[in-house]
């Protein structure tokens, strides 16, 4: 299943359609990839498999780490370290993630943000009508720690019973979270996926990210781009972008998240100013033309060899 719209000019091939055995799959992948002049591999499991199957070939490989590399399993960390020599270049999303890797690779590591989705361009939450709603967007997964967010909202609801929390996304924890919400008895709605998340964000008062770890949260930068005040745990990406109570708010447990909910919902002027500064912080980083050119500079460097 592909979560995003794909240009029809892009050809999709699935390794599972050919082999289920891991060795046979890697051999098929090696044969398939060798027909190309350059390979770009995203996400740790994919780029480790790509580096492994392309050993002793000359095809340039660009890998991209999209999460906090320190949170990988010990086995994956060892395999990644053993295979990194095979990459020509790596793209990461924050300077903190770049620093994680050995210094000998730093000249081959670039920091590039994700571009903003087209549905967010020319949109703003600063002048939109606000519902009494807090919004979060993310996969329903233990990494995102939505239970802490729900705990925070339950505390906040004791003094703000007319507010609701809308969580957008799908994932393996849906049923568990539904049961957790029912036990808490507060107005939390699991909204699934939305084709136009920008419009949902614009009508909210606050965006919240409760993750235990991240690379760079796309949803967070989208909210900041729109000018929505953001509450976030101190994860990679947020730590580079947010100055506490200037262009966002940090919170590290249910109590501090609930306090931030109260502060931003009760202080409209402060919330608007934080959102405006957030938008000004992010816009130059996520312009799609800027990001595209950064990627093209790397790609052209290795396709011209």
UniProtKB/TrEMBL annotation:
Q: Does the keyword Transmembrane helix apply?
A: yes
The domain of life is: Bacteria
| Record EC number | 2.4.-.-
Could you tell me which Pfam families the record lists for this protein?
Answer: Glycos_transf_1
So where does this one cross the membrane? 38-57
Q: Which Gene3D superfamilies match?
A: Glycogen Phosphorylase B (3.40.50.2000)
Q: Which UniProt keywords apply?
A: Glycosyltransferase, Membrane, Transferase, Transmembrane, Transmembrane helix
Q: Which GO terms describe its molecular function?
A: glycosyltransferase activity
Q: Which residues form the Glycosyl transferase family domain?
A: 125-275
Give the residues annotated as coiled coil.
Answer: none
The protein depicted here goes by the name: Glycosyltransferase, group 1 family protein
The species this protein was found in: Alistipes putredinis DSM 17216
């Amino acid at each position: 299943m592909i979560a995003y719209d794909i240009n029809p000019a892009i050809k999709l091939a699935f390794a599972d359609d050919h082999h289920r055995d891991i060795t046979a799959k890697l051999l098929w992948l090696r044969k398939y990839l060798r027909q190309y002049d350059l390979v770009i591999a995203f996400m740790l499991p994919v780029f480790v498999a790509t580096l492994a199957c392309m050993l002793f070939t000359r095809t340039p490989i660009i890998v991209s780490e999209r999460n906090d590399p320190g949170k990988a399993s010990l086995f994956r960390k060892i395999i990644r370290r053993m295979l990194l020599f095979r990459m020509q270049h790596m793209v990461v999303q924050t300077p903190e993630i770049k620093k994680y890797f050995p210094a000998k690779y730093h000249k081959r590591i670039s920091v590039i943000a994700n571009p903003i989705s087209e549905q967010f361009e020319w949109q703003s939450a600063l002048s939109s009508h606000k519902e009494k709603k807090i919004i979060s967007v993310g996969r329903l997964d233990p990494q995102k720690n939505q239970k802490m967010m729900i705990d925070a909202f339950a505390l906040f609801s004791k003094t703000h019973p007319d507010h609701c929390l809308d969580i957008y996304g799908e994932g393996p924890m849906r049923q568990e979270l539904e049961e957790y919400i029912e036990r808490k008895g507060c107005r939390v709605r699991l909204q699934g996926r939305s084709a136009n998340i920008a419009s949902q964000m614009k009508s909210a008062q606050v965006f919240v990210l409760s993750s235990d770890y991240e690379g760079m949260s796309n949803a967070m930068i989208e909210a900041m781009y729109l000018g929505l005040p953001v509450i976030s745990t101190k994860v990679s990406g947020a730590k580079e972008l947010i100055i506490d109570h200037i262009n966002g708010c940090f919170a590290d447990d249910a109590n501090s998240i609930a306090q931030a909910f109260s502060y931003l919902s009760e202080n409209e002027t402060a919330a608007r100013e934080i959102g405006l500064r957030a938008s000004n912080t992010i816009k130059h980083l996520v312009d799609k033309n800027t990001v595209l050119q950064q990627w093209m500079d790397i790609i052209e460097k290795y396709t011209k060899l």
